[in-house]
Amino acid sequence: MRAWQVHRPGPMSSRPLVRATVAVPQPGPGELLVAVQACGVCRTDLHVAEGDLAVHRPGVIPGHEVVGEVVAVGADAGPGFAVGDRVGIAWLRHTCGSCRYCLRGQENLCPQSRYTGWDADGGYAEFATVPSAFALRLPAGYADTELAPLLCAGIIGFRALLRADLPRGGRLGIYGFGGSAHLTAQVALADGAEVHVMTRGERARELALALGAASAQGAADPPPVPLDAAVLFAPVGDLVLPALEALDRGGTLAIAGIHLSDIPVLNYQRHLFQERQVRSVTANTRADAQAFLDFAGRHRLQVTHPRYSLDGAEDALRDLAEGRIAGAAVLVV
């Protein structure tokens, strides 16, 4: 099968991805084999390719926003899925189920967690496997290319919004407006929030306003009103300071990314006093994923999804790295 592998992590200018022809994987016990139809291009894929995330598997096939069709079922996979089913493969693919985090409903913090496109081969290929316990049922009414970004960009944004503790009808600030942010904004708007977007790209600001944001300005510019909560999607630690300054009393900033550049020194009075706080976001639970996909089934989300062929995966990651993508790019297999 055709696939892309991370050969030597480094800047996209160094061409860290290589095209490869590899054997079609076989589903192990408890796994499904999925024919990939679409795979989202996530900033985490870029972090894996460029080495911001340490290598977990040399030569890994990236991609963890996979929509496809089950074509084979491994032994002991259980009754949940059958050949011909449409399924989603997301970032989280294994937890132990027995540690104290798993037992208290925080499987995203499991020390033995493993991830698609980092610990195991992902969807920049024609076929991929997934443990059936971590395969996701998908809402109706969306094309494959619309569904793919929901499987990480949507899920992680949904968890970040929960972590931001936005009050009902409150004012939400969004810093960075890419694949995850443009979906999160729609979730917040559907719940009655007032959304203000801070991002560097003119096209991204235009998209934010078109989706219903109350304002859109530069990445470090102050919003026109104090914020009840904010989510930082851009992997830029420098933006933590203006985001905290923009918060009203008691506001929360949630940092959504798996990677963030260094945060400058905080000033207690300007950035944290009056019970402002910072929270990180670590992966997601399967309950988060299902709650978000159920929400997407009830509320039709507008997914901006520029498309690339599988052969164009390198171009898609380069465009993402250089800020040329508005919305969430998708590979069509």
Percentage of residues assigned to helices: 25-40%
Number of strands: 16
Span between N and C termini?
A: 11 Å
Task: Please work out how many helical segments DSSP would assign.
Answer: 9
Biggest pleated sheet: 6 strands, mixed
SSE blueprint:
Blueprint: E1 2-6, E2 17-21, E3 31-40, H1 43-50, E4 66-73, E5 86-89, E6 92-94, H2 100-103, E7 114-115, E8 127-131, H3 144-164, E9 171-175, H4 179-190, E10 194-198, H5 202-211, E11 215-217, E12 227-232, H6 240-246, E13 247-255, H7 268-272, E14 277-280, H8 286-298, E15 307-309, H9 313-321, E16 330-332
Helix pairs in contact: 3-4, 3-8
Written account of the structure:
The strands form 4 sheets. Strands 3, 4, 5, 8, 15 and 16 form a 6-stranded mixed β-sheet that branches. By secondary structure, the chain is an alpha/beta fold. The chain is globular and about 55 Å long. It contains 9 helices and 16 strands.
Task: Summarize this structure as a short list of keywords or feature phrases.
333 residues; alpha/beta; Quinone Oxidoreductase, Chain A, domain 1; Rossmann fold; 2 domains; six-stranded mixed sheet; six-stranded parallel sheet; 9 helices
Tell me briefly what this model is:
The protein has 333 residues and is α/β, with parallel strands linked by helices. It has 9 helices and 16 strands.
